[in-house]
């Protein structure tokens, strides 16, 4: 019996020490408020569609954030201080990140768990936007996220640009496209008349050039100054995601939106808008997310 | 003593059953602990002094307090208490209670000079302490770091410990009959 008493006491002491250590650790790594990943996106709203208010012409857009594992709040509304007239409807469910049906390790918890943190996704759709608002481009840098318990978080979201969708010149015809799960993509176009590639415009070029290698007909787009294309030629645009160098780079989302500029022999300009949303399938881990929070605090 | 252990056995069965109707627990753990508490009261009326009763009182206060807290505070916003602290506290309480109950049973058999039963329940107690204690440690670590493999291991160990409790409380609820039969013969 003495042996049992000794075992009992030893277990109680170890349980006490481990429990105390774990509680201190939990408090130490707990987030005061959810942290939203920055993203840079160029989105177009199709005003020709009567139902434009129910969605963007691009794919359904989303915000990603992480919070404490036991945080059961969900985002119920989002407003943008720079554009109070823009109303969007967020959808947050416990279906996991990026639309995939992840099962959480603990049924009471929401999102994809990484140690003490839970990674979440909030999809959103525009529900109200006065048409005249899009006369100029809307640039969203800040958002206020309202949670189901009444709390709110005002945060820097990077930059989201909303503009009217414009139709492209009919000098190039889309042939085929493919993309892989690691974020690489390829699009093929048929050239309908002799043209000369004379440059491109892109927002967020700093972010894009660090993370994406882009080639037009096997030539690096950043170095390409001129490319002669004849009628019937194939124009191939390839994008490849480069490994991120820092955590800030790694966890920053972006979509590619390039306005390719072509000229014909009469110096008439034509445009082709090429959009691609690389998959956001970064490797997440508790330690990296924790380091990210520390970097955010330092910024 | 058999009647007391029978109630403890029934209480543990109820604690295991988790039926909810419209998010309302039909047999909340509170009822299970009240039944176990009533079983322990029988020991006390029979003159067996047990410290365990005070621990169960503490657990009842904890469970009632938690229910009130969750009802009024709506603490699902940040459920550290609900998801981490309470499951661990409940298991630690269970760990202390059943170790003491087994100790009490051994003392009871020692007073009657039943060496085989002393050896049997001392061995039960040791197995219970090791399995349940390890299960609690793994549970704390799995809830802290949200590690699925640790959660699975701790669930298996806690289930084994629970089955062990059911086996020895059922066995103890039968020991009095056996003793009565032996003394009659």
Automatic annotation (TrEMBL), chain A:
<keyword id="KW-1133">Transmembrane helix</keyword>
<keyword id="KW-0472">Membrane</keyword>
<feature type="transmembrane region" description="Helical">
    <location>
        <begin position="7"/>
        <end position="29"/>
    </location>
</feature>
<keyword id="KW-0812">Transmembrane</keyword>
<protein>
    <submittedName>
        <fullName>Uncharacterized protein</fullName>
    </submittedName>
</protein>
TrEMBL record, chain B:
<protein>
    <submittedName>
        <fullName>Uncharacterized protein</fullName>
    </submittedName>
</protein>
<keyword id="KW-0812">Transmembrane</keyword>
<feature type="transmembrane region" description="Helical">
    <location>
        <begin position="127"/>
        <end position="145"/>
    </location>
</feature>
<feature type="transmembrane region" description="Helical">
    <location>
        <begin position="48"/>
        <end position="72"/>
    </location>
</feature>
<feature type="transmembrane region" description="Helical">
    <location>
        <begin position="151"/>
        <end position="172"/>
    </location>
</feature>
<feature type="transmembrane region" description="Helical">
    <location>
        <begin position="12"/>
        <end position="36"/>
    </location>
</feature>
<keyword id="KW-1133">Transmembrane helix</keyword>
<keyword id="KW-0472">Membrane</keyword>
<feature type="transmembrane region" description="Helical">
    <location>
        <begin position="84"/>
        <end position="111"/>
    </location>
</feature>
